[in-house]
Amino acid sequence: MGKLFDLSNKRIDILKEIANIGAGNAATSLSQLLNKKIEMKVPNVYVASFNDVMDLAGGAETEVTAVYIRIQEDITGSMFFILPIPQAKKYAKALMNDYVLQDASTVKEMESSVLQELGNILIGSYLSVLSNMTNLMVNPSVPAIQCDMFGAIISHALIELSLESDEALVIDAVIKEEGHQDSELIRGHIFFLPDSQSYKKIFDILEV
User: Fold this and answer.
1) Bridge partners, residue 187, by sequence
2) In the prediction, which pLDDT does 138 show?
3) Measured between alpha carbons, how far is 122 from 80 in angstroms, rounded to an integer?
4) Is the pLDDT of residue 50 over 80?
5) Distance between alpha carbon 31 and the CA centroid of its chain, in Å?
6) Lowest-confidence segment of 92-101, 163-172, 183-192 by average pLDDT
7) What angle do CA 192, 196, 200 make, to 5 degrees?
8) How far from each other are the two terminal CA atoms of the chain, in whole angstroms?
9) Which end of the chain has fewer beta carbons closer than 10 Å to its terminal beta carbon, N or C?
10) How many CB atoms neighbour CB 127 within 10 A?
11) Does the pLDDT value for residue 2 go beyond 60?
12) Residue 26, Cβ density class (10 Å: 0-12 exposed, 13-18 middle, ≥19 buried)
């Protein structure tokens, strides 16, 4: 099985720069959404094998909340934002503090909605910067949210990509309230799974 379009350290650095710019934009949006000053860091961007991707989420049978977006146009592939269930509940609670909801089904629907919007902000910020820096068209689908075992959620995208490679790009995401350095609001992972032709288009432009 081949490597993910030969992602050298230089290319990883380019993708990390894009992720950091996107993180700044995402922090601004989250600050407005949560009505508090939020900062987002990208401590690492790296390539991981499919087995390592499973381990990052705690194993294929670990229950997670996942926001999934399909990418089309000049860049094609998939992106996932993965949160462990306790982290997902912590974020939903932080956003829903001002709501008094008595009906359990309404609470569940609200949690799903705020988590879907979180994933949309994080993934959308990254794709927006990538599109602006490359002038490539990126058409993301409406974000879908799912709570299930991680292996079941991501298996379809990995099967598609496995025809070309057995690796994925991982973007770590740490979100904190500014001034509370020891109190993380969220620590999750964004998985970027474009096809090899999309990587070629990106680096043909960015490495000129």
Assistant:
1) 174
2) 92
3) 10
4) no
5) 18
6) 92-101
7) 105
8) 28
9) C
10) 20
11) no
12) buried
Contacts within 8 Å (CB) and 24+ apart, 180-185: 185/38, 185/90, 185/91, 185/94
Nearest to 22 by CA among 101, 140, 158, 157: 140
Q: What is the mean pLDDT of the chain?
A: 80
Please choose, from the candidates 151, 80, 85, 139, the residue with its C-alpha nearest in 3D space to the C-alpha of residue 112. Answer: 85
- Among 193, 151, 162, smallest CA distance to 63 is for 151
pLDDT interval class at 101 (50, 70, 90): very low
What average pLDDT does range 32-45 have in this prediction?
A: 85
Distances (CA, A) of 204 to 48, 83, 117, 201: 23, 33, 32, 5
Q: Which is nearest to 47 in space by CA: 163, 161, 174?
A: 161
User: Which structure tokens are listed for 159?
Assistant: 């099967």
59 vs 143: which has the higher pLDDT: 143
Q: Which residues pair with 14 in a beta bridge?
A: none
Strand-pair category, 184-194 with 77-84: antiparallel
Say how far apart CA 167 and CA 46 lie, in whole Å: 10
Name every residue whose Cβ is closer than 8 Å to that of residue 46 and which is 6 or more positions away in sequence.
12, 169, 170
Contact predicate 118/67, CB 8 Å: yes
Tokens 């075992």 — which residue? 149
Euclidean distance between CA atoms 197 and 200, whole angstroms: 5
Q: CA torsion angle for 59, 61, 62, 65 (degrees, to 10)? A: 110
